[in-house]
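Sample entry copied in:
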Amino acid sequence: MTWGDAEYLWLLTLTPLVSILIILSNMFRKKRLARFLGQRYKDLSQSLERRRQVLYRCLALSLAFACICIALARPRWGYEWRTLERKGADIMVVVDVSKSMNAEDIKPNRLQRARREIIDLLSMLQGDRIGLLQFAGVGFVQCPLTLDYMAMELFLDSLGESMIPVPGSAIGNAIRLAHKSLMESATEGSVGKSIILITDGEDHESGPIQAAQDAASDGVRIYPIGIGSEGGAPIPDGDGGYVKDQSGRMVLSRLDEGTLEEIARITEGRYVRSTTGDLDLDIIYSQHIRKDLKPGNIGETREKVWHESFWIFAVAAMFILIFDFHIQGRRLSTEK
């Protein structure tokens, strides 16, 4: 036997409290009757019978409470394996890990904020396959399309520019690589394909517009997220200072929205501008990816389905309460 919500079992420790409350309630009731009836109370009361009734009620309500607690904990006996067909979209998350993504205009910095937002996205997925590609001067697929969201989260822990030996920011090359990975990983019947591109928009002549057009020809939609502030921010150099140009002036990383908006327009995606750290991945997923892309068959999975038995204890508690209500009704009728 296993438990679906074992955390509710601690409520069983409160079972004695039910009996205590019933006993206290009976004591207060006797005091009120004694005050009201005076000397006649002793003649009218039947102490032995009353004690038995209190004892029976303590047992009944305590047992009903225990059954309710056990039902809440969802006891399960036995299970069976079922083969389930998985339907969803293919989502490749493409993250810029160039030096400019270390700018701290968004706390703690652009890259770390993006990582946290992607982790939140994983909890929203509804059977979709997701992959991870990071890029700077070049890119590589860090996590191929997968249904294992826990594995994806582990890959996110190592997200950073230290993995990329070539500096720079080649958005076009990253889109081509993500596009290629989506097409090579496509399963029969898989329809929806999308790229979530998280970057500050700086590109070093890698042809992002042409790459977007090629992706659009295969039905791939791109949802760019421009991350950064309007005025730009200095780029940490890793030694406690900031990156400077040849003349010694501090280099500012500014958001290039024009290219990202054009990429979204070409692929019929949606551009989101993030200046506060909110990447709106929940909106992109729920209102666009799930609606714009037709879910396809992305494989089958076997799932262990437990036989829930909580209803046995729920029904037992109900009958105990009905019985107690009936007994109390008869007792009151007798007293009248």
Summary: The CA atoms of residues 222 and 239 lie 36 Å apart. The domain at 90-294 is CATH 3.40.50.410 (Rossmann fold). The longest strand covers residues 75-88. The first helix runs from residue 15 to 37.
